Amino acid sequence: MRREKSYRGISTRLAVQYLENLGGERVDDGTVKGEGWRADLSAEKVDVAGSIRLTEVTVAFEGEEAVLEELIEDFDRKAMRAGG
What we know:
Layout (H helix, E strand, L loop, with lengths): L1 E7 L3 H10 L3 E4 L2 E4 L2 E13 L2 E12 L1 H18 L2
């Protein structure tokens, strides 16, 4: 299963840290692997309103459906507290 989600207001570094806290190990700057899952991260600046720009981190989650459901739910909670 593959699921891609975007998060605004957090950095790639922070997203990697959250994934490590959820049981993953950093493979490189943009990839974290855990038991039954993998996450590939990318980031870009996006216009929010007028001249306001935020970092938007996109995480492509891959793995077993049951594992991803819990992982994404936990990651969403962490990302919501950090950025928005």
